[in-house]
């Protein structure tokens, strides 16, 4: 059933209460959209409704006003909500909640938004305080019901927004569970941009004689926004980013949304555009909820003018100033194409939608073109240097793929703070602009101070700082070396020699030096390295040491210490030469040769003969002897 009514001027003429109408007029909303004109009279009367209209045509107020007006003024006991709106994505939940809060500004109704990615505690506290309307995603709603924090037994108005998208995301079992939790006597409204067969079957099962409202004049018209100029090009994968960079410098360009098929493609495109100087951010499912909301706030406030997103994020972004939409990847089907280009040309404004089709995507695009009845069966082959790119998009001649520094006036994503949503787990941080913060801008954690090591150097079993060094006359090596060389001569102290001689010294393995060091009185000294001192003209003082027999001038010749010198290997033992009496015979006798006094070892035959004499069996002469065995 399709109804069409005469155009009415204000919300008051449609039966809206003065409180809601005044709140809308305060925000500058005075004239209803076509979907609102057709849906409000039916919804205000309490009928079940199926609304089908394009995105951006005011569907939120079409079901929000009847819900708020049916609930009426707030009650004292708000423990159980009376209005429920189910949406597929977090972004759409936030957008719907903002519109409902705007409409209920003078009613005093409480609207709560619940969705995944945020902490449970604030949502549970809000439910305990009491709410009138709940807007949320199916997963978080069922979690709160399972934890017995949410009671849906008094719901009087139930709304399914973007029902086709919830079907695509696999929320159909969750939606059926929610229908079983709410009372049977209720008003149910279902809104969707497209109406697949599963949604029709769902409406027949859970809606009571619904009325279908469609704002299009003909069945085939209105699938795509008429205010949006559509451009379809066949482009190469490696050249698409260059075309987008030139498109973003077109005359009159405002906010722009770029849609990609995968999350990885979103990250790649956002990084490439950020490198080229554009204020850009990415929104997809791998980012935390705080980062996604940060990017959307920055986009709405104009701190960034390019938003790269997936199809899931496209459903919840409601920004009226989007002038360009770029389908970086070909949409999966006609529904995705309609929802993508529906981000521009909203609220009666005009927009431009550019779609890139690669060679392997031509078959998919021809199906979309045939289903929607478009006029692009064979897209034009396009490159970044093609002349029609500059003419059709109003791009100045000579524009390159890098934004000039003089035109970089946006504050960027870093200017928008990340709201603390109480997310559990570690935040998802990505390189580039994906995480909302660059790697070089992150604060480095202060490393704790290291604990000082408890080590002390010892010398001869005593701490090195307690050792008293006594200077003695230095003995320097003069064997081919001068004082200007890098190596310093060894300094030997007499006190150190006595200390080492009195106390045991720890043995360490040391390599033998190339040249020998001096030795005093053939006692094993300790060679200690002393700091280099500048030679002076004054004579060095001579300290009195332990009684020494020789004076300093009559010292023994310097020899290398025994521990530094390598002992000579023992000489091989040569046989002794015996000179006989006769000069004609020479006899060599080794010290290891046998002499006449040595015992002669028995031969093998003698040993075998002795073994045969012994009996084989038991004791000799016994009954079990070998001879008796033979005889028996």
From TrEMBL:
<keyword id="KW-0347">Helicase</keyword>
<dbReference type="GO" id="GO:0005829">
    <property type="term" value="C:cytosol"/>
</dbReference>
<protein>
    <recommendedName>
        <fullName>RNA helicase</fullName>
        <ecNumber>3.6.4.13</ecNumber>
    </recommendedName>
</protein>
<feature type="domain" description="Helicase ATP-binding">
    <location>
        <begin position="40"/>
        <end position="213"/>
    </location>
</feature>
<dbReference type="InterPro" id="IPR044742">
    <property type="entry name" value="DEAD/DEAH_RhlB"/>
</dbReference>
<dbReference type="GO" id="GO:0009409">
    <property type="term" value="P:response to cold"/>
</dbReference>
<dbReference type="InterPro" id="IPR011545">
    <property type="entry name" value="DEAD/DEAH_box_helicase_dom"/>
</dbReference>
<dbReference type="GO" id="GO:0003724">
    <property type="term" value="F:RNA helicase activity"/>
</dbReference>
<comment type="similarity">
    <text>Belongs to the DEAD box helicase family.</text>
</comment>
<dbReference type="InterPro" id="IPR014014">
    <property type="entry name" value="RNA_helicase_DEAD_Q_motif"/>
</dbReference>
<dbReference type="GO" id="GO:0005524">
    <property type="term" value="F:ATP binding"/>
</dbReference>
<feature type="region of interest" description="Disordered">
    <location>
        <begin position="399"/>
        <end position="632"/>
    </location>
</feature>
<dbReference type="InterPro" id="IPR001650">
    <property type="entry name" value="Helicase_C-like"/>
</dbReference>
<feature type="domain" description="DEAD-box RNA helicase Q">
    <location>
        <begin position="9"/>
        <end position="37"/>
    </location>
</feature>
<dbReference type="InterPro" id="IPR000629">
    <property type="entry name" value="RNA-helicase_DEAD-box_CS"/>
</dbReference>
<feature type="compositionally biased region" description="Basic residues">
    <location>
        <begin position="450"/>
        <end position="460"/>
    </location>
</feature>
<dbReference type="GO" id="GO:0033592">
    <property type="term" value="F:RNA strand annealing activity"/>
</dbReference>
<feature type="short sequence motif" description="Q motif">
    <location>
        <begin position="9"/>
        <end position="37"/>
    </location>
</feature>
<dbReference type="Pfam" id="PF00270">
    <property type="entry name" value="DEAD"/>
</dbReference>
<feature type="domain" description="Helicase C-terminal">
    <location>
        <begin position="242"/>
        <end position="388"/>
    </location>
</feature>
<keyword id="KW-0067">ATP-binding</keyword>
<feature type="compositionally biased region" description="Basic and acidic residues">
    <location>
        <begin position="437"/>
        <end position="449"/>
    </location>
</feature>
<dbReference type="InterPro" id="IPR050547">
    <property type="entry name" value="DEAD_box_RNA_helicases"/>
</dbReference>
<dbReference type="InterPro" id="IPR014001">
    <property type="entry name" value="Helicase_ATP-bd"/>
</dbReference>
<dbReference type="Pfam" id="PF00271">
    <property type="entry name" value="Helicase_C"/>
</dbReference>
<dbReference type="GO" id="GO:0016787">
    <property type="term" value="F:hydrolase activity"/>
</dbReference>
<dbReference type="InterPro" id="IPR027417">
    <property type="entry name" value="P-loop_NTPase"/>
</dbReference>
<keyword id="KW-0547">Nucleotide-binding</keyword>
<keyword id="KW-0378">Hydrolase</keyword>
<dbReference type="GO" id="GO:0005840">
    <property type="term" value="C:ribosome"/>
</dbReference>
